Prior knowledge:
Helix content: under 10%
Structural class: mainly beta
Number of helices: 0
Order of helices and strands: EEEEEEEEEEEEEEEEEEEEEEEEEEEEEE
Radius of gyration: 19 Å
Number of strands: 30
Strand content: over 45%
Amino acid sequence: PVGEPLRGHDWVRAVALAELDGHLAVVSGGEDGTVRAWRVADQAAAGEPWHGHDWVRAVAAGEVADDPTVVSAGEDGTVRVWRLESGAPVGEPWRGHDGWIRAMVVGELEGRPIVVSGGVDSTVRVWGLDDGSPLGEPRRGHDGVVWSVAMGDIDGHPVVASGGEDGTVRVWPLVVSVPPGEPWRGHEGTVRAVAVGKIEGCPVVVSGGSDGTVRVWELAGGAPLADPWRGQSDDVWSVAVGELEGRPVVVSGDDDGMVRVRQLDGGAPVGEPWCAHEGGVSAVAVGVLEGRLVVVSGGWNGTIGVWQPADGGRQELIDLGSAVRAVAFASPRHVVAGTAMGIVVLRLGSTSASEAGP
């Protein structure tokens, strides 16, 4: 780890990366209801915590009129926007969800920045980031919590993919006049994670569920591509898409503690599954270091796993001593982890998986 943990939150639930005064910053949201910004260079808080939520579930970085902003979503059912430089709220909280918000993503629609949120009220909602106005009616269809959302496009038209407690994956066109298609059924249980990728230029959705399967669907139409990928004995909590030696791959983290890498086209395993985390994998992220794919995973047992599949499966496990809830790449060499004790920054080395030092 680089320096001491950045403390302040009771429990970090979400992290995102932003640029503050030309330098890398980490934004975090916690169970203490605050959003905080941290400077990576000197490992220090960038101002006071930002108060408003009861419990922060998701954070993301955005921009309004060239002004860096942070978007947060909480258990209070609101979406809030903050100025990154000062932490000042931008307008009033956006209200609409009935209950807490489970998932959120920032994107763009016809040149306008937008926010997409999914909540326990079974709805997916789209907002204009510049003024918080709802774009169309809430997207209804899920029966139960919307666990995950991701953005993609079909023939240049932006869409949102969502995964729900009802076991379905749904795709919602962001152009209001276009009706949504039928839900994609297959998972037996909650769809906990979705991600978007491409196979030979064809956009696809990857989903992971509580039935222990990972599934790949054609984004345009929802046709399943091959059989479900089985092997996990428990819930799949997280999925991510990357590229290994020119081919797209999927990384998944399971409740049985396994991290798995598969080829996106066909599902062939890349190496043996890595039993990295006793007690379950909470999060996975993919990055590129010196032209090679790097997989980083976080575990409920307080460990971070670093895996370079192209390097003969080189693996390293780092014990942080505190349950990990979120991981993200801050740069090709820096990984940020949100833990029960605070934010931890790790530096990836070229000769070993991780090194201490700035």
